Amino acid sequence: MSKVFYITGSSSGLGEDLVRNLSSRGHQVIATARSITKIEHLKQLSNVRVQQLDISDSTETLKQKVDEAISFFGRIDVLVNNAGYGQSGCFEEVSMDEIRKQFETNVFGTVNLTQVFLPYFRSTATESKICTVTSGAGTVAFPTSTAYSASKFALEGFFENLDAELRASQIPVQVLIVAPGVFKTNFVDNMVKPDAEIGAYADLKHKINTFLQGISESGGDCSIGAKLIADALLGEGFAEGKTVPLRLPIGSDSVAQLVGKYRRELEVTEAWKPFAAESDAK
């Protein structure tokens, strides 16, 4: 049975490729973006509708957009939170206004849209799904892009808690957090630079930028990444017959980051266990 997907951030990269992949499998897709002109071409695909959507808009506006989207195909089964942008800059460089703007879109907009969808999903008879695209930078520090990394850490926290609450309440809405590694996109080139830059961090930023440019050129294939996300959401391919985990890294680099961090954290935590235990009630 075909599903109806609502995908934010569909104008390029993983978002656009996910629209194309799902359409090719016979599913209905509502592709959204801040600029409708950037997704008009997707209307040529089978069973695809497009909608202008700025996830940082008011709750009332988002409700109107979701109601309109539901009317396109009569229902929505899966929400894919993919919209967002990258703010570069070290901790000391990014202003509070730049940090707030980053969080307004990446975090608050995503959370607000999801809250708008939840009453609808709870009212449906079939299992719904919420997929949120974060980043490897959502679990491992991303020096020189502190605000962006922190926004992805925040998303991981919000949706891990949502998953726990839905499970404990036996509400049939599945949560999936997708943490992509580096793919061949214009993401690095499109990152917003801070208004103020501090010379003390110049060498670090040069090294990181050189590294990012290198891995971007040899990064993963977006079309394959999109296929894997679709497989996970549909229970097909490698995911067929398996229980898909809450957090799913996409790309060997993302897996290596996660495994490396978890191993380091476990080792340090075990080593300092006696110290922590000193606070236990005697």
UniProtKB/TrEMBL annotation:
GO terms for molecular function: oxidoreductase activity. InterPro entries: NAD(P)-bd_dom_sf, SDR_fam, SDR_oxidoreductase. Keywords: Oxidoreductase. Pfam families: adh_short. It comes from the Eukaryota. Coiled coil: none annotated. Belongs to the short-chain dehydrogenases/reductases (SDR) family. PANTHER family: SHORT CHAIN DEHYDROGENASE, SHORT-CHAIN DEHYDROGENASE_REDUCTASE FAMILY PROTEIN. This is Uncharacterized protein. It comes from Wallemia hederae. The lineage of its organism: Eukaryota, Fungi, Dikarya, Basidiomycota, Wallemiomycotina.
